[in-house]
Amino acid sequence: MSSRFSGLTPLLAPRSVAVLGASSDPTRISGRPIAYMLAQGFQGALYPINPNRTEVQGLKAYASIADLPETPDVAIVAVAAEVAAPAVEELGKRGVKAIVMFTAGFAEMDESGEAAQAKMVATARSYGMRLLGPNCLGVFDARRSYYATFSSSFDSGWPVPGRIGIASQSGAYGTHLYTLARNRGIGASLCVMTGNEADVTVGECIGWLAENPEVDVIAVYAEGIREAPGLIAALETARAAKKPIVMQKVGRSELGTKAAKSHTASIAGDDAVTEAIMNEFGVYRARNSEEMLDIAHTATRKIYPVRNTLGVITVSGGAGVLISDVAETVNLSMPEMPLDAQKKLRDLVPFCAPRNPVDATAQVSNDVTLVKTFTESMVRDGGYTSVLGFFSMTASSRRWPSIREQLNAVMTENPGRLYALSVIIPPAGRDELEADGWVVHEDPTRAVVAIDAMGRFGAAFAAAQGAPPPTVPAVTLPAKNPSEAEAKRLLATAGIASAPEAECATADQAVAAAERFGYPVVMKILSPDIVHKSEIGGVLLDVSDAASVRDGYALLLERAKSAAPTAKIDGVLVAKQLKGGVECILGIHRDPVFGPMAMFGLGGIFVEILKDVVFRRCPFGADVAEDMIRSIKGAPLLLGARGRKKADVKALAETLSRLSAFAVAAGPRLQSIDLNPVFAMPEGDGAFAVDAVIEVGD
Amino acid sequence: MSSRFSGLTPLLAPRSVAVLGASSDPTRISGRPIAYMLAQGFQGALYPINPNRTEVQGLKAYASIADLPETPDVAIVAVAAEVAAPAVEELGKRGVKAIVMFTAGFAEMDESGEAAQAKMVATARSYGMRLLGPNCLGVFDARRSYYATFSSSFDSGWPVPGRIGIASQSGAYGTHLYTLARNRGIGASLCVMTGNEADVTVGECIGWLAENPEVDVIAVYAEGIREAPGLIAALETARAAKKPIVMQKVGRSELGTKAAKSHTASIAGDDAVTEAIMNEFGVYRARNSEEMLDIAHTATRKIYPVRNTLGVITVSGGAGVLISDVAETVNLSMPEMPLDAQKKLRDLVPFCAPRNPVDATAQVSNDVTLVKTFTESMVRDGGYTSVLGFFSMTASSRRWPSIREQLNAVMTENPGRLYALSVIIPPAGRDELEADGWVVHEDPTRAVVAIDAMGRFGAAFAAAQGAPPPTVPAVTLPAKNPSEAEAKRLLATAGIASAPEAECATADQAVAAAERFGYPVVMKILSPDIVHKSEIGGVLLDVSDAASVRDGYALLLERAKSAAPTAKIDGVLVAKQLKGGVECILGIHRDPVFGPMAMFGLGGIFVEILKDVVFRRCPFGADVAEDMIRSIKGAPLLLGARGRKKADVKALAETLSRLSAFAVAAGPRLQSIDLNPVFAMPEGDGAFAVDAVIEVGD
Fold first, then answer.
1. Contacts with B323 from chain A: Cβ below 8 Å
2. Do A173 and B637 touch (CB under 8 A)?
3. Where in the sequence is the domain holding A685, given as residue range(s)?
4. Are residues A145 and A18 in the same domain?
5. Are A445 and A322 a contacting pair, CB within 8 Å?
6. CB–CB of B260/B254 below 8 Å?
7. Can you tell me the distance from the alpha carbon of A535 to that of A533, in angstroms, rounded to the nearest whole number?
């Protein structure tokens, strides 16, 4: 393979491996990789390097990297931190392409360690070498018998080969994960653990797995993303290749973030931002390792329905209810069977439950072909893209072989669906069912979550490219933070509308402006010397006719004069007073990793108390903006719930997407934008920013 | 044992068992109970009844119930539905105390089945017999080798004895549950499955388990509660005995409820109501069977901290972050270690993480006693009531025996805490750790949820009895729905305040009332003939001085006269106009099972769009009411979030608890009450109903 991430191939799939300071003791850190590769039969060349030995674990040992008969693709380095730097230099001189560095005592330790790490990476880069770690548990690929790792987990067994690839920032948790996979008989051949990420990032590893034809599904454990372009390119590659990514991202909570910061090297990126990136690319965020493996394993069937529907066949009405509950919670559709199909089934078994969940009842004991008849009707008449059978411990009963035969017949004759079973069965029986083509889960609720995830992948893969972000003119930010009026003028160049307003130097101008906008209007004293206008009575609301505008003009000038006799008075600001709109907040903030991120939420308590907001990387088109708007909990307020008027969601989405394009056009000096509030007016009447704050950096 | 539920003892722990229509075939429904009891050695008397045989499965068979040498405690009935009724009659005549009825074809089938079931239960009751089922999978108690069940699950193994008791409405799901328990090595000796619940309910079974000294923890699966007094008494008994209940209640979703209704006999009770009952008694609602077993198993350690805190010792920083995330999600406190203890640990291991999660780092490899030093410091210095060790696959490594020794020393020397491990280990190793005293979970997130549940049980057991519900005078409901003013007067007798208002027959009276209340006031035309006051301009808001009240009085009379010349005019209603309050909704509705239930929520979007409401069985005291108020998501709005004024939560709670007492005092004719809105005024200013609707039934 050759493309964006092929530079990692010498590291992750090398033809030749050198081990610095190779030990004859197979239980020592620098002995283990050799012991593992010998035990499993690594096909490439393996070069122990040890100046004190001529032989290590039965292999010829070399005194130095210079003595090797060929230049190895990768070198494993487990030497002490003090001597790691010269070792890297030496490897670079020899032309080695990549290093796996187990050695700890760098950035995770203290500032001097951080400096040493930076220097070492600079050396590696000067030779064009890639470096995994330091302070990492390394990488293995069971299919190639490549074990550049000192994980002791192989004491209890070798990985089960399969088409899941794992990328983890944490060594201990990566090991935990693949050990769980192995114990459940789930095939995950390849696991890379990135440690301090001084050079190679988890994002790049995802990209390499996405390009790897031996990998269908990618499972990721991450604590924080340090580098955006690699991750974004990786997620794009995976989506284009229709390879689902399941990711466990920790540090969601305040407490978790604190714990993360006291752990290993620093955590970059805000959790909400990482979540927004995951949503953008259809990455499934798993709550725990079990969910991650459930979903990754189910995904290896490569059935990703674009519009997922679930049909359930059950031996327990109670389980049917439970499954329906969970399906509703995760929003997985369980349509009713067509009425004629229900009738047909009821004609066969008078007291069956043919609706969905479907229950053929104990009649199955008398006629096992009913299992096939009922399940087939679900697939053919119900048209479900996913079928889940709840058979619990029936799968350990004497009747099971004949039921299995009936079920298999349906599957064989109706391919292209996702077939899952919730059964209690010993591992051997489970493996047989998996070989038949079923995805086997013990717990029905976990099965539903995994099935739902397949639909989410399908929808993400099928998502139309979407409208391009709007084109906005070049933005020249002022030297320092603009005033509200300046901010609104800048935003107006990108087509972001504010409530109409005019600076008026005479009462006549004020009346003309008010007549132009329509009543009521708001009037504010205009003076660079009066900051807190309302404190001197400098703001008038609900001004509703020409006479009142004239009176108001005089009143404001009089108040200003008496409260601040020396202030320079420029006149009065007249603005249309918006009524009947829904208060929203639109904002931008610059994330140190991912750049400008847009935020949308409803105003007031929704943001303040319920934290009901959504984020997205800038820029994006109006269709994405509308999806964002519709995704928040309070969306019904905009969509006309309970007899409310529908708000102008189209205009609001247009404003949001224009804001995202503006944020990019404004360049890296833009720190943040707050449009609070924006009024989404009734449908057809637009959306208008009422206040605007733009923060500019250096 | 002898008490409220001892009437079920002949059914659930009989000394003698008869089997009607006993079969010689141990695989047939009426052969299985005998086969199981013979295989496991039931200690009581076992009487097969079969007129066609003298011997069944090696036991002497009897021709009829009349021929038995003694009256059995319980009879197992698996005869056809048509002959079930005469069998019940015959058993009653003989004086049998209880029946386990497997037979299906009753209420779950159709109306005639329902009628047959009702008749059969009436017969049983006329003889003082209790009946489990019909259409049930029965009951077993492995400790007594009592198997009144035809479950085929014993094909794959016998239950693991232990101190968990299971009560399930669903046979298939009950079996699923205890099979899962058995496969995980979790001891659940006793399982009762109630099927159609024609007589014995799941509530009563919970009560019997709560009184059973051989049971410490009760696991329940329910689809709907049909009978309140038994369940309430059972929950009270369990709470008094400090026996935790974990319950899986399905039918939470709309879809699930539909599925439930198409299943077995009908579902009673609304899910939100059942959830309120669970909250009232500290029953933990499990999301799925795994969570139920995790929690039930953890609870068998009988450590229920009243104020639970979690200390985590980990070999993986990443897992520490994950655990912190979950702890925050479930609201389990993970306080930081005391600073001097952190310093002490850092002096021992310079780069350790001593905060919590605590990580002794790889130094442990050099000095395994660090495991004890660190863990002990957590217990003694940190004072955590619960300790979770994340050791993942370290527990399968060569180092584990010495680590285990260190950990065990801490546990032995510091009893009374909850000790849990997250490890990946084969079943034999797990069983050893469990025998040591650890609760073993593979997944750390599931461990956290289970540990948190122990604190919830502790808090529920320790909860003060609470203030008694307020005493309210007797309530005499009118014959039909009262008017708003009548409703407010009725409620006022219970001390529920409405916004002050007065019926005024003259302008002078109106002014006097307004002066008494303080301005502004609302004025409404008073006429039995004018229903829609606002349509004729019959409501004036913001009336703010005496002159305006006089003008308003005249204006309202004039408008009424012109709009409805023939209407009888009684004068004008003057009411204080409330400003600055938080809009709440207080309500009562009569649940068919549990009687009057109180509801509290914030007004407007909180109820309409976010469904942010809480329910509670009536009556209750003001402290419970305050807990309800504080439990909703929008509570910060009342508690002074973000610079808002604090609302008068005490007065609001008092109003809510008085409403609950009123609802009970009003008796069964009360259908519902709606106080919408109630304004919770700023602290010290009270809470007032602005509208009141009382619905009265026959």
1. 259
2. no
3. 582-696
4. yes
5. yes
6. no
7. 5
